Amino acid sequence: MTEIGVEVAKVGLASIVKAMADRLFTPAKRRPSGLSPEGKWHVTWRVGQPQDYRPKKVDDIVTLKLARNGKLKGSGENPFYGPYTLMGTDTPYAITLAYRGSGSKSNFPGVCLIIKTADPDRMDGVWWQYGSNGSFVGGTQGMKRIN
Asked: Which of 19, 20, 78, 131 makes the best surface tag, with the fewest CB within 10 Å?
């Protein structure tokens, strides 16, 4: 489990945002600007909260494309929830994304904050979404470029 994953398991959303901001602004963790998140990614979503939520891990494929002014658009396919769309913002050190399913799953929106690392083919982050049981579900994610 990553350092951020341990934080997700122990603390609430406000503390997670602070931990991500602390990590984001640590110079050793900064990713050089100019490295693009565009492309196809294998994403592993790990559930940290609630503890009894199943499945505990989901793997899927996400495709991201840059639009104007640092905006991102994309799509993903999840074996449990089907296809979903992504919209967000790209900065030199992080990306933020909002997503929602399609069809009957469109009422389950989520957000994620992803930290870019010095490795152009890997990113890590945290995510939270509104679950089908009416609770918030969240955890960590790891992304690995596949093209």
From this structure: 131
